[in-house]
Structure formats: structure tokens, C-alpha cells
Design goal:
Radius of gyration: 20 Å
Strand order of the largest sheet: 3-2-1-4-5-7-6
Helix content: 25-40%
Number of helices: 10
CATH class of the largest domain: Alpha Beta
Number of strands: 7
Order of helices and strands: HHHHHHEEHEEHEHHEE
CATH superfamily of the largest domain: Vaccinia Virus protein VP39
Oligomer: single chain
Protein name: Methyltransferase type 11 domain-containing protein
Shape: globular
CATH topology of the largest domain: Rossmann fold
Pfam families: Methyltransf_11
GO molecular function: S-adenosylmethionine-dependent methyltransferase activity
InterPro entries: Methyltransf_11, SAM-dependent_MTases_sf, Thiol_S-MT
Mean pLDDT: 82
Distance between the termini: 49 Å
Bound molecules: S-adenosylmethionine
Domain Methyltransferase type: 121-219
Structural class: alpha/beta
Length: 290
């Protein structure tokens, strides 16, 4: 039988091991299944969606035979969409960055003074608009920029180079399943990213995991408007369009509630509106400590 249905057999074994152990967030069943290199992944079960209970043996067998895994981490990306989005995004944010500069300067003040060798992770680094806040004349942090859009890589690297941030690394990967050891970073940063990840709870759990004890997560995000407001209603109506046009960006995320629920020891945050941004106006910024 193993020869006839190799995928089904591997998937069943994976289901057995799943029911035997509760997987830690960030553990991928897909990689546990160990599909041989070069073969199409044929496993729909996936722990990237941590909200799902472990599937039954029968479901596992059927899914393994019938369908590939479709979670955000396993789904193939469109190279042309990524490249176009990266190019448009990196050329369209100047006025937003200018408006937010005083606030970012204040928020990232501690990072600018980061000791040489301090490790900073930026989740969803994009073209690197925040990198300038980590480099100073005297100190250069060791910065890792994580992003699943490889098209952002050249822009982020060019930004780092222009700032003299020689210890910058662009890593292709997802916030929901970071390819880093527990406690690997002194600080983490995320701006305009929790609107775009598929699973904010998993992403925030990963942020906590990769920060050392006492490490800090610096965030700035656009969020859903106040309950009952016309703005919020408009956000719900137009969020699907925004997701299609802006690489999965949701207008309706209550990211501050998600951060508060993520198990950080302390969350210090404020809400503010960015004038002229209409449905994207409501923002939050702050620091969460592990
Ligand atoms: C709106 S851009 C923000 C870029 C940058 N942080 C900024 O403030 O301009 C969102 C970024 O998050 C990245 N992203 C989307 N889904 C992600 C995920 N699951 N994990 C990590 N990054 C993600 C996108 O590729 C994109 O670069």
C-alpha cells in the first residue's frame, strides 16, 4: 500500500504524530511530512492555521490524496505580482513616511542607540523605510529583514547600503513561521505589517518566541476604526478590494487587541489618526515587552 499511495501513507503517519503531540505554534506539519525534494506538496493539513484542531486520520488521508496545502506559508507566490507590488510600494510611500517621521523617530529612539552587534528583526521589512532609524554615526545594529516578497529584497538591500548598515540581511520568510531560533533577537519591529499577514495571532506568537526575555516589539499599524462609526462600516465594505489591490492588506484588523492578547508582559501603546488617509487614518503605535 505504501508503494501505491505514498502521499497518503506519509500523511497518515503525520496525522498519527499530530494527535500524539500538540505542535508548538510555528511548527509546520508540511515540513514534518518530509515530501521528497522536487515533488509537489500534497498535504492540505497544516499547523500554520493554529486555530484548527488536529484533523482526524480519515480527513488526513483524504486531504493528502486530493489536495495540496493552501495555507499562506505553503501557497506558491506570484513572482510578477510581488515584483510589481514591491516596485509600486517602494515608490509611493514618501509622503506617508514624511508625515510619520517625527513619531517614528520617537518610537525607535532606543534602537538608534542600539549597541554594536545588537540584533534587530524587522518583520515585513518591505523596501526598508525604517532602516534609517536603526543606524547612527556611532552604532550599527545587526538587522535582519524578514519578508515573503522577494521583490522587496533589492530595495531593502539598497536602502541598507545607502545607510552604511553593513550588517543587514534580507530573509525570505513569513511572520507566521519564522526561520529563527527562540530568543534570537534583542528587538523586533513591525510597521504596516499585521494588516497584511494572514494569521496575526500566529505572527505575534512568533514575534514573542524569537525575542529574548525582556526583548521589545516596536509596532506602528493602521487599524480598524471605532465601533459603530461610518469609517468602520466603510472599512468593512472596502476591505476585500484593498486586499486584492494591496497584497492582502486588511482595513479591519484590531491589531492593538491582538497585541494585547498575545501574551506580552507589558504593552504600552497609543492611538492616533493620520490626516488625509481616509479609511487608513486610524493608527496605533507602541512597544510590547516580552
Ligand atoms: C504594507 S507593506 C509594509 C512594509 C514596511 N514595513 C513599511 O512600513 O513600509 C507590508 C509588508 O509585509 C509583507 N508581508 C506580507 N505578508 C507577510 C507575512 N505573512 N509575513 C511577513 N511579512 C509579510 C509584505 O510583503 C510587505 O513587504
Amino acid at each position: 500500500m505504501a508503494g501505491l499511495f505514498p502521499d497518503a501513507m506519509t500523511t497518515m503517519r503525520a496525522a498519527d504524530s499530530l494527535s500524539a503531540t500538540r505542535l508548538r505554534p510555528g511548527t509546520s506539519l508540511c515540513s514534518r511530512v518530509g515530501t521528497p525534494k522536487g515533488r509537489r506538496q500534497r498535504v492540505i493539513l497544516c499547523c500554520h492555521n493554529h486555530a484548527n484542531p488536529p484533523p482526524s486520520r480519515r480527513d488526513t488521508l483524504l486531504a493528502g490524496v486530493l489536495a495540496p496545502c493552501s495555507c499562506a506559508v505553503c501557497r506558491p507566490r506570484s513572482r510578477w505580482y510581488d515584483d510589481i507590488f514591491a516596485s509600486l510600494y517602494s515608490h509611493s510611500m514618501d509622503s506617508y513616511e514624511e508625515t510619520l517621521a517625527p513619531r517614528k523617530q520617537k518610537l525607535f529612539a532606543n534602537l538608534q542607540g542600539a549597541k554594536d552587534g545588537a540584533t534587530v528583526l524587522e518583520v515585513g521589512v518591505g523596501p526598508g523605510p525604517n532602516l534609517k532609524y536603526y543606524s547612527s554615526k556611532d552604532h550599527k545594529a545587526k538587522v535582519t529583514g524578514l519578508d515573503p516578497n522577494n521583490g522587496m529584497g533589492p530595495y531593502a538591500r539598497a536602502t541598507a547600503e545607502s545607510l552604511g548598515l553593513s550588517d543587514f540581511q534580507f530573509v525570505d520568510g513569513y511572520a507566521e513561521e519564522m526561520p529563527f531560533e527562540d530568543g534570537a533577537f534583542d528587538a523586533a519591529v513591525g510597521t504596516l505589517v499585521m494588516c497584511s499577514v494572514e494569521d496575526p495571532e500566529a505572527a505575534l506568537s512568533e514575534v514573542r518566541r524569537v525575542l529574548r526575555p525582556g526583548g521589545r516589539y516596536y509596532f506602528l499599524e493602521h487599524v480598524v476604526g471605532p465601533p459603530g462609526s461610518l469609517l468602520r462600516a466603510g472599512q468593512y465594505v472596502l476591505s476585500p478590494l484593498q486586499q486584492a489591490l494591496a497584497d492582502g492588506c486588511h482595513l479591519t484588523r484590531d491589531t492593538l487587541a491582538s497585541i494585547r492578547a498575545a501574551g506580552f508582559k507589558d504593552v504600552d501603546a497609543e492611538r492616533f489618526d493620520v490626516e488625509g488617509l481616509s479609511l487608513l487614518a486610524p493608527h496605533i503605535a507602541g512597544v510590547a515587552t516580552v
